[in-house]
Amino acid sequence: MEQNQQQDYLSSQQSQQPLPNATAVLVLGILSIVICFITGIIALVLANKDIALYRANPGAYTSQSYSNIKTGRICAIIGIALQLIGLLVYVVFIVFLVTAAGAAGGFN
Questions:
Q1: C-alpha separations of 78 from 40, 47, 87 in Å
Q2: Using H for helix, E for strand and C for coil, what is the string for the chain?
Q3: Would you place residue 33 in the very low, low, confident or very high pLDDT band (cuts 50, 70, 90)?
């Protein structure tokens, strides 16, 4: 009896497959923090597609790959937010420099 339960457990584990883009989403999400937000946008698109796949049939995919998707998605959101904050700081800095130069009469 116990041997049959072990075989059922093993066969159910073997029938599960990882989500198609789980590793790619995780890598792209991490790269969005380090390199640029474009990889974060790609990671979000792929993650949303794979989350929809998982929600349609959760028994067909491993929970580890779903965890990788969620982690990569969070990293992508963080990377995009950091890049947008950095871009905002650059814009404010440039506006400040242009305003300071104009006030000092540097554009005459």
A1: 9, 14, 14
A2: CHHHHHHHHHHHHHHCECCCCHHHHHHHHHHHHHCCHHHHHHHHHHHHHHHHHHHHCHHHECHHHHHHHHHHHHHHHHHHHHHHHHHHHHHHHHHHHHHHHHHCCCCC
A3: very high
Give 61's strand partners. Answer: 17
Residue 49 has pLDDT above 90, yes or no: yes
- The greatest distance separating any two alpha carbons of the chain, rounded to the nearest whole angstrom, comes to 92
55 token code pair: 């929600």
Averaged over 12-38, what is the pLDDT?
89
Specify whether the CB–CB gap between 71 and 24 falls below 8 A: no
Distance CA 50, CA 58 (A): 11
- Rounded distance between C-alpha atoms, residue 69 and residue 46, angstroms: 9
